[in-house]
Structure formats: structure tokens, C-alpha cells
Amino acid sequence: MLILIAGITGNVGKQAARAGLERGHEIRGLGRSPSKLDPAVLSGLESFVQSENYYDISALEKAVKGVDAVICAYGGLAELALEGQLLLLRAAERAGIKRFLAASWNYDWRRISLHDQEVYDPYIAFHAQASLSSSIKTLHILTGMLAEVFFGSHKERGFTPADDGVWDPEPQGADSTGPNQRARSMDVYGTGNEPWS
Ligand SMILES: NC(=O)c1ccc[n+]([C@@H]2O[C@H](COP(=O)([O-])OP(=O)(O)OC[C@H]3O[C@@H](n4cnc5c(N)ncnc54)[C@H](OP(=O)(O)O)[C@@H]3O)[C@@H](O)[C@H]2O)c1
């Protein structure tokens, strides 16, 4: 099927593109910066629609035309999670799309309420608005915390440290989470039952 990945140039978007291509899907990308993509991935795309920002309606219309499904992999900013996703959802509705995977690779926000944890408020609000008013029943993947995030650092393009353990701000190659990375470990404290925001 032809799948649009919005935010394809990000951490999750790049991995989703590679996974889709490996499974024989056609992948269309939407983003502001095609240069962030590995040339091998970029050349394998059905097309890349360049946008100015998340409210670039003409780019959204072009991006959703003729696709079978949308994967939203926008970054975790509040305005992307709410306004950005709603504008993309409305464009998908107008194009008659039924499959829309929302950018919700995060904690199970169904178990909390608005204002419990502000970072989840736009995701809860998006889901509530889509449920009330959209012809699309949005899909969500709730992952909990991705452990790799703990191993990333500011300015690093991937999530994990280099083989020598030194943070590399410009890791070579697209696969900074690949099998050649050094062994990872995580310290766990407490009993596992303490509340943790
Ligand atoms: N569960 C976890 O532990 C965990 C960890 C990481 C991420 N996540 C979730 O996964 C999702 C994707 O995260 P990510 O780390 O892959 O995101 P990311 O790399 O920070 O960003 C994804 C994309 O968002 C696009 N973007 C940013 N600002 C934009 C704007 N103003 N207008 C249009 N597009 C914009 C960028 O594309 P361009 O620059 O090309 O436009 C960027 O490539 C988020 O919902 C995040 O919360 C969850």
C-alpha cells in the first residue's frame, strides 16, 4: 500500500520508512527538510512532499492525495501534537483516507486526565477531538518509555551512544540504533512500585 509518513525526517519517521520499504510498501514522505534523510531512503520513496510548516495546507493536500494510510511521526511539541495532527487528520478526511496512525508512541495517556502531566494534554485533546468529530477512527500505539531515549543526548541525531561510548554529534550512517552499538545497560532503583511522573 502507499503510506504517507509525516515527520519522516525524525527519529521515529526514519525507522518507520525503513520498516515500510523493507516490507514492500510504497512510502511517501512529508517534511520540511529532505536533507535530514539518508539518500538511500530518500531515493527509495514514492515521493517526498516538502512543506513550510505543519500548517502548510497545500503541502498537506498534496501529501495525502491517493495514499492508503497515514503515519504521523511528528516530534513531541505541543503544537504538532494538537494543531499539527488535527490539520493532517482533516486533510486525510478530505482525501477519503481511513487509516491514520497518530503520533502517540508514549505513555498510556488513557490512564491519566488532563493536567495530570501537561506533556500528554495535547495527545489527550487530539484523541478527544478526533473521536468527537472525525470520520476517521484514529489508531494509536502506546509504547511506554522507549529505553533508547535514555541513551541519547542533546544534539545527537540518533538515540544511542557510539561504539566507543563517546557521544557523537554527527553519527555516520542512518542506523545509530543498529546492532553494532555497544552493549547498553540501565540502572533501576526503588522497588518498582514507586509513583514516577
Ligand atoms: N515513548 C518514548 O519514549 C518516545 C521517545 C521518543 C519519541 N516519542 C514520540 O514519537 C513521536 C516522534 O518523535 P521523534 O523523536 O521521532 O520526533 P523528532 O525526531 O523530534 O521530530 C519528528 C519530525 O517532526 C517534524 N517537525 C518538527 N517541527 C515541525 C514543524 N514546526 N512543522 C512540521 N514538522 C515539524 C520534523 O520534520 P522536518 O524538520 O523535516 O519538518 C521532524 O523530523 C513523538 O510523538 C514523540 O513524543 C516517544
Automatic annotation (TrEMBL):
Residues 7-105 form the NAD(P)-binding domain. InterPro entries: NAD(P)-bd_dom, NAD(P)-bd_dom_sf, NmrA/Isoflavone_reductase-like. Residues 174-183 have a biased composition (Polar residues). Signal peptide: none annotated. Residues 161-197 are annotated as: Disordered. SUPFAM superfamilies: NAD(P)-binding Rossmann-fold domains (SSF51735). GO terms for molecular function: oxidoreductase activity. Pfam families: NAD_binding_10. Keywords: NADP, Oxidoreductase. It comes from the Eukaryota. Belongs to the NmrA-type oxidoreductase family. Isoflavone reductase subfamily. This is NAD(P)-binding domain-containing protein. It comes from Pseudogymnoascus verrucosus.
